[in-house]
Amino acid sequence: MSFKDKLKNILTPVEDDYEEYIELTEEETERLSEYEQPRSQGGPKLPSDTKMVLFEPRSFEEADEVARYLKERRAAVVNLHRLQRDYAQRTIDFLTGVVFALDGSIQKIGHNVILCTPKTIGVEGEISMNIDELDE
Asked: What is the spatial distance between Cα 136 and Cα 123, in angstroms, rounded to a whole number?
């Protein structure tokens, strides 16, 4: 092997033609802790043409499910009424970051109700939150 070939082998990354998957038996899966358990992809299975999903989270941990749907280019209406104020604010902060990363938008559409949309779904119009504006 020449010096040139050795140098090429050092500088060029080795590419594997396969990925290694480890399959666990049912017995091994049962011994895993909750955090090591394989996670299913999302919650309930929705038809592929669904464009909007409604959520009413009961804990902050459910916010990652909303994020998964946003990544799948679906809009999400999130009703935060069942969350304590601190957890509702934490959920809004998390979803704001997700929407920002996806170049989407987030809007308040009611008291403790927000609309999160990915970049691919446009939203037209505005909802007035001020009662005084309704009389005009």
From this structure: 24
User: Side by side, which strands form the sheet with 52-55?
Assistant: 52-55, 75-79, 113-117, 105-110
- Residue-level pLDDT at 120: 82
Beta-bridge partners for 79: 113
Instruction: Please report, for the chain, the start and end positions of each structural domain, with discontinuous segments joined by +.
Output: 50-123
pLDDT averaged per 10 residues, the chain (length 136): 65 52 60 49 56 89 91 92 93 94 91 90 74 56
Tell me the whole-structure pTM to 2 decimals: 0.58
And the tokens for 133? 């504006």
d(C-alpha 66, C-alpha 31), whole Å: 29
Q: Where are the alpha helices (DSSP H) in 12-84?
A: 26-31, 63-71
Residues forming beta bridges with residue 115, ordered by sequence position? 77, 107
CA distance linking residue 117 with residue 20, whole number of Å:
36
Rounded Cα distance between 105 and 99, Å, is: 6
Name the nearest CA neighbour of 53 among 105, 98, 117, 107: 117
Domain 50-123 has what CATH class? alpha beta
Q: Angle at which helices 85-101 and 63-71 pack, to 10 degrees?
A: 20
